[in-house]
């Protein structure tokens, strides 16, 4: 009996592993089948820079009470931005042109005419008491106001059935509205309606107007309340008989009912929620525009992406052999899943987004590298009898680091999506999709492929081909040298401070060179005798000294040039360059334009980013310690200041492309720190009496192979973009190369020393300085076949 139990337990474990593998395989197949189906049936929408789109020119008009000046037009831009976000159009461009025009560019709009109609509606919402039916339909019809008895004005408008009603002056306006949503009443069969929620003061006014109406008998027109949008009664419900006179409807909300379909209800809700335009607008032009980037730039970016991805795949295969090849297959699956998810949510893909998407493939290597390095540690310690068991232990040990780093990134992505707008909101969508897809790729697809391959007899007999049977050159070098990097942590902090001051001084000395998205500039439209190719125009303007000019085809053969602010002499130079290509040239439009990343958008982005960092700090404090969260956020601030400062010294533009790069660097920096501190946390649980500085040093040495291999994967792609891609992507790649280098440095030599310094302050003790490169703890990089020795010196209790 005793001898039969071990085989029984082994068979039970084997069956359990087989069931788990089968479940993961079925999940992977289901995800891939759904991704293939979506990718084949739903194309991804391309942005203005890759495909172009629709341009709508709106003109603001003055009224008796409001003047259509620059301030009113700027407020109109912000209201329009909210409506476009509600329409589901991602990555639009909205700028003020001149004093009273707004240029809206929309990528991939299915119905441009409908979009123009929605944008052009003033959306003045008012709520009125009904004074009764109009005896004469012409009495004040059309919204004209007359004097009634007393001081109140009145207006006469037809209701939904065509009956004319006399209305009292507005009791509530759109300023009293807190929100609006389109809902479907399936239970009562009432169909689609719009629920409107009022603010506190609006709630009191709503109760008053419905309380006054309730004093009239049922069926009397005066028992009705009229809801008016742009001088048209859209709903005039009668107050329910259950409402008593003077009490009114409390709760601060109402329903607008009618014969709405889903599209009409949603359109009405977004107009009410988005708010009224401060002044009326009129659509004066609508046309198709070409891509802001030429075919050559797009082709160069695509080739750079392909070459960079191929180099990254080759690097992973060289380092991890069979497991690297399987990880490459999983990364291709990651790309397909991300593509399908972008298509499914209707996201708009721009060139920086495409570059970030390719970079995410390089960064998605990180999860696979974490697993493979942990499996190598298990194999090196000789604690696992087979490659498959080492892989299983690697996935289990790496899970917490993968989960924590991805959750912190998802927190940031969610807050950017819900609180920011414009391109920052779009970045949140792309970032969230990339993180979720990378987790599916690494934890499901890679694991299925790796465990299946490791269980094959041919692989079992030849473990070296798996790539995890050896420790690798980086870990071997660390084992030979056994450096004590954290011997003097304050020196590393001093070095980081010097780099921070030198780079940050560029912001004060040189200042920031904000791009046209932040500062606005000048828009000139030309009509030429001969149609000009935008690519040739870009080259000509670059040669003339305007390398950052945005050139687009516009309408029927016209050419639009958007630059920073120009003097008259510089504008003449631009005109001359265009005329040399197109012959006789006429200026159709020459106007100053406002920033596409306006003040409100920038403020929302900063608020969202600040809250994202605070949320990440709170999560790290809960999952780890406040000490680790503070050190990680401190290293992150260090990276951001250095990157911005270097761009200031180089005189590079701070534009929308740089903003995308900066947000990517923030995610990369936090990810590196989380992986390191996850290992510190693990070692704290195993060896609580090891000095904290030595324990942190152990964590650095154990995670350094992962840091080097992940960094190399990202650098290969970024170097390809920097060398092969168009100028617009060169700055993007340069920013990310700087960010990856600084982020890798700061996670080791800024976050770690800062954590040691904070820990020393908490415990009131100085970090240990003795022992040099001796082995002082059990949690060390281990040599194959040997268990690390336990030191009997320098015992310091780690609380």
Description:
The protein has 799 residues and is α+β, with helices and mostly antiparallel strands. It is built from 21 helices and 22 strands. Strands 5, 6, 7, 8, 9, 12 and 13 form a 7-stranded antiparallel β-sheet that branches. Strands 3-4-2-15 form a 4-stranded antiparallel β-sheet, covered by helices on one side. The two termini are 47 Å apart. The N terminus and C terminus are likely disordered.
Sequence-ordered SSE layout with sheet pairings:
Layout: H1 5-41, E1 45-46, E2 53-60, H2 70-87, E3 93-97, E4 101-106, H3 112-120, E5 125-133, E6 146-147, E7 153-158, E8 164-168, E9 172-173, E10 177-185, E11 191-198, H4 200-213, E12 225-229, E13 233-235, E14 253-260, H5 262-274, E15 281-289, H6 295-345, E16 348-349, H7 351-380, H8 387-419, H9 422-454, H10 457-461, H11 473-481, H12 489-509, E17 513-514, H13 516-519, E18 521-528, H14 534-543, E19 550-554, E20 558-563, H15 568-582, E21 585-593, H16 599-623, H17 626-650, E22 653-654, H18 656-686, H19 692-724, H20 727-749, H21 751-763
Helix pairs in contact: 1-6, 1-9, 2-5, 6-7, 6-9, 6-19, 7-8, 7-9, 7-18, 7-19, 8-9, 8-16, 8-18, 9-18, 12-17, 12-21, 14-15, 16-17, 17-18, 17-20, 17-21, 18-19, 18-20, 19-20, 19-21, 20-21
Task: Give structural attributes.
disordered N terminus; disordered C terminus; alpha+beta; four-stranded antiparallel beta sheet; SecD_1st
**Arithmetic mean of pLDDT:** 80
Strand content: 15-25%
Q: Tell me the helix content.
A: 55-70%
How far apart, in Å, are the first and last alpha carbons? 47 Å
Question: So what's the overall shape?
Answer: globular
Total number of β-strand segments?
A: 22
Tally of alpha and pi helices: 21
Derived structural class: alpha+beta
Largest sheet: 7 strands, antiparallel
